[in-house]
Design goal:
The chain is 0% helix and 47% strand. By secondary structure, it is an all-beta fold. The protein is globular.
Length: 126
């Protein structure tokens, strides 16, 4: 069974930091683009960041650029999201996703991803 499992969410004060992890199991994602999306209450899911399998190309939403950093460790089948200078508007459920295509695309649409985790809650208090 293929799974993506997120961890690292929690409650943090504005200006603080969190590091999310997403571990894959059941198959390797070492040759696939992986990304992070988030969904706040009452809002649609939105793109956060994505990274190619080599780690050589990354794409960020404008709202997180300069504050969030996506990275991956293919030996651990894991992708990370380092979140700094957190704001109240970053509060959301964060989910990781993976593509099955072996390419170097960095799409920002959820429909471009085939596997999804259950999500981890991030709450930023102001």
């Amino acid at each position: 069974q293929v799974q993506l499992v997120e961890s690292g969410g929690g409650l943090v004060q504005a200006g603080g930091s969190l590091r999310l992890s997403c571990a894959g199991s059941g198959r390797t994602f070492s040759r696939n683009t992986m990304g992070w999306f988030r969904q706040a209450p009452g809002k649609e899911r939105e793109f956060v960041a994505t990274i190619t399998w080599t780690g050589g190309t990354k794409n960020y939403a404008d709202t997180v650029k300069g504050r969030f950093t996506i990275s991956r460790d293919n030996t651990k089948n894991t992708v990370y999201l380092q979140m700094n200078s957190l704001k109240a508007e970053d509060t959301a459920v964060y989910s990781c996703a993976a593509r099955t295509l072996r390419d170097i695309a960095v799409p920002t649409t959820a429909a471009s991803y085939d596997y999804w985790g259950q999500g981890t809650q991030v709450t930023v208090s102001s």
